[in-house]
Design brief:
alpha+beta; 9-stranded mixed beta sheet; two-stranded antiparallel sheet; globular
């Protein structure tokens, strides 16, 4: 249970998702550092095949507020966790940091099954109920259901609509 998890994590440095960017260089340089972060699975790509013929999947991990990042599942991690459900709370252990083309951006990757641990399901995770203007399909943004049914984009759209409607009435 939770005591076993605490015992296992005792020697790891916990780095909040929001502080990962600030700690990125330190984590890349100090390969002896044992670290973990916790997030919620907010999205996933279809299963893909790399140029060397191996399957992988890309997950979006976030905090359902303002932070999300990309996590690549390779090797044993893919075999064990490719079917992880949206809304699952996960601990990521010693993820590898991958630099992106844009200097400020980065992704994480894991390839061992023990690098991802499922610890529960977020009761506050949901998907925006808005519709995309471009194709009329449902929005896929993760939301915190404690604060409503829409992502910030669709909430702002609702606000703009109601404000425009009031202007018409004011004449």
């Amino acid at each position: 249970g939770i005591l076993d998890l605490r015992r296992q994590m005792k020697h790891f440095e916990y780095i909040n998702l929001e502080k990962l960017k600030k700690n990125k260089e330190r984590l890349k340089k100090d390969t002896s550092l044992e670290w973990v972060t916790i997030g919620i699975v907010q999205g996933h790509s279809p299963i893909r095949t790399s140029s060397n013929g191996k399957k992988f999947r890309i997950l979006t991990i976030g905090n359902i507020k303002n932070i999300s990042l990309t996590l690549f599942l390779f090797g044993q991690a893919f075999d064990e966790h490719a079917d992880v459900r949206l809304g699952t709370i996960v601990i990521l252990v010693n993820s590898h940091i991958l630099d992106a083309k844009e200097k400020q951006s980065f992704s994480l990757s894991i390839n061992a099954k023990g690098q991802l641990m499922k610890i529960g399901t977020s009761k506050d995770y949901g998907i925006c109920q808005g519709k995309r203007k471009s194709d009329g399909r449902k929005c896929t943004m993760a939301i915190d259901t404690r604060y409503g049914k829409f992502c910030e984009y669709h909430l702002a759209g609702q606000f703009r609509k109601s404000a425009a409607g009031r202007m018409d009435l004011a004449g």
